[in-house]
Structure formats: C-alpha cells, structure tokens
Amino acid sequence: MRNVSVIIPFYNNKEFLIDTINSVLSQTYRDVEIVLIDDASKDDVYEFVRINFRKEIEKGKVIVFRNKNNLERCISRNIGAYYSKGEYLFFLDHDDMYEKDYIESVLPYFNDYDIVYSIPRRFVDSENRIIRYSRKKFGKMDEEIFSGNIGYTIGIGVKKSVFSGFKNEFLMREDWEFFIRNFLEGKKIKILDNDKIIIREHKNRTSNNIKLYLSTLNIMKTYYDKIDDHYKPFILFHTGEIALRFGRKKEGLMYIKDALKIKNGIIFERRRLTNLIKWGIMNFR
C-alpha cells in the first residue's frame, strides 16, 4: 500500500477541528497519518487536540507538532511536509473536510501525474448544511490555472518527491502560486471534478482579507514576464477581477483593459462577465 500524510495547520481555533480530523480518520484508505501543526496558538487548542485524539496519537496515527512562534500557514504546511512519512502529501485546512473515499479515489492518478487537484464544489456552514454548490464549468487546465480558478489548498495532493513547498511571500494566494510555479516547472498536473472535498464558509475565513488582492498582484508581477504570451491575458484579467472585488476600481479596470488588448474575446466567457457585473456594480455605485 502507498502511505499518505495529511497535513493540517491550525491556529487558535478548535471549533471545527474535530470534524476536520475525523473526516481523515474515517477515510476508506487506511494507510494515512495525520500531521497536525499548531502554529503557536494562544488558546488551549493544543491541549484540546491531545486530549480528544489521545489514542490516535499513542498509535502514531496522529502526530502533533507545535511551532514556538507564529509562522503562518505556508511555513507550517512546509514543516508538516518535512516531518511527514507519506509518499503522498495532502493538505487540509482546520475547518474543511474530506468525503470518506476522497484519498482512495485520488491515489490511482499518481501513476501518471505528480499533482492531483480536486475541484471544490460543496460549501457548508458551521452546522455542515450546504449553503451553495458550485457549478462552474472548467476548460483547459493550463488556462484555468492562469485564470486563478485552480487553487484551494484542500484540493491538493502531491508526490512528496516533487513537493517544493508553499511560499510565504504569497500568503493568501500561496495555493494559486503553487500551481503556476509547478506548471512552469513542467510538473504533470491532473484536475479532477469528483465532488469529494467540502469547504466550510464562516466569518473568520481569510478570503475577505485585502491581503488576498495584494498577493494576487504580487504573483502577477512575479510571473508575468516568465509566462507564455498566450497566458498573459488570463493572469491580467484575473488580477483585475480581484482588484474590483476589493473596490480597487482604477487598478481593476487597468488590468482588465490590458487583458482585452491582448485577447478581446476573453471577456465573453460567462464566468468573467458574471464577476464583472457582480463586483463592478457592487463597487462602482
């Protein structure tokens, strides 16, 4: 059997952690270790984990590390990967969950690919009730990467032998940068639409933080001159969309116009039009 490590960083939040860990413990594929990284929490979550999963810790099924200082999630995940024993690495946030057969359904694809990404479809609330189901249509894998549509860390499975880490300078969009970098390095990437991962939405999620836009901008500037001309309108348009989402009208329109100069038809893709209407009207009125 192939051994798997699931890496879960956490900080100051135990509300959903039991559900998250149990979703891994209940996997139909059994050769799995859980590597927990407490990022120097200030509450009692470290003791909470050790009490609630004492048996699993004693058996070596769950391993808990504690950072001396708060290092943020990129470095915490990298620490977890370093200490993991698995041939394959999966990453899970402290509030999200897997379906029971998620890992088992993904592993066969590693025969041909280095990285396997599962598209998130289900989003639930704090009571595990489905609040929305994404029906986004996905096109060519490479274009979807540069369009910012491939990224959630929860969807990532990667061979440890090729894992080059998450970069803290791109925190908030480190998952998107991970795919751009690995694509440019020639890693073989498989996208699965298997509805096997569940994302929890709540008020403390980081997706509403302005740093998300700043990291998006940083990634675009870092990689723009390194990518093929074919992908430039996609990364520009996505940067513009995120700028509009955070009320940066002038910057957003500038990047979108630059994208249209290269590929005028890019705006007619339904999802992009929807985002422009949603974020444009919301921020321009």
Give the secondary structure arrangement, pairings included.
Elements: E1 4-10, H1 17-25, E2 32-38, H2 45-52, H3 54-59, E3 62-66, H4 72-83, E4 88-91, E5 97-98, H5 102-106, E6 115-118, E7 122-124, E8 130-133, H6 141-146, E9 156-159, H7 174-184, E10 189-192, E11 197-200, H8 211-223, H9 232-245, H10 249-262, H11 270-284
Helix pairs in contact: 8-9, 9-10
Residue fraction in strands: 15-25%
Measured between the Cα atoms of the first and last residue, the distance is 58 Å
Mean pLDDT: 93
Low-confidence stretches: none
GO molecular function: transferase activity
Organism: candidate division WOR-3 bacterium
Protein name: Glycosyltransferase family 2 protein
Keywords: Transferase
